[in-house]
Amino acid sequence: MKLLTLIRHAKSSWSHPHLSDHDRPLNRRGRHDAPMMGLHLKTRHLVISRMLSSTATRAVQTATLIAQPLDYPTDKIQTLTTLYAASARQLLEVIRQQEDGDHLALVGHNPGISELAAQLANTSTHDMPTCAVLQLKFDLSHWETIATHSGHIQFYDTPKHAFNQ
User: Can you list the domains of the chain with their CATH numbers?
Assistant: First the structure.
């Protein structure tokens, strides 16, 4: 059995027009929501084997702020340039290349992360707003064998529903 936790980065700032899209940081709401989501996920007793993040500033900040309350070592977050602006197909390829840890968390961007969720889940999924988390369970032994529409939704959380914003 494998668990895949898909996380869309938290709300980012548009107040720095001189920054590239890749370098945009989280805004105040994002800096609030990400650690709150980490605390919320801690109540679900998540034990992550590996966390991957896009190299975009807002994704790395989200990964770090979620990892801390989960006691996941932030220096173990693996950043991949291929996750920035990745399509669902590209994200799936990254997942298939992973070693066989039992619980993989992936922090990325829309539209790819929402499209991947829709492709992997065996039922319909919601679009993933900022800082949304979707966990899927797969009956497989190796990530390389992950198939579309084979994931069983374990939970879907958004900041609005997780801590009643």
Answer: 2-162 (3.40.50.1240)
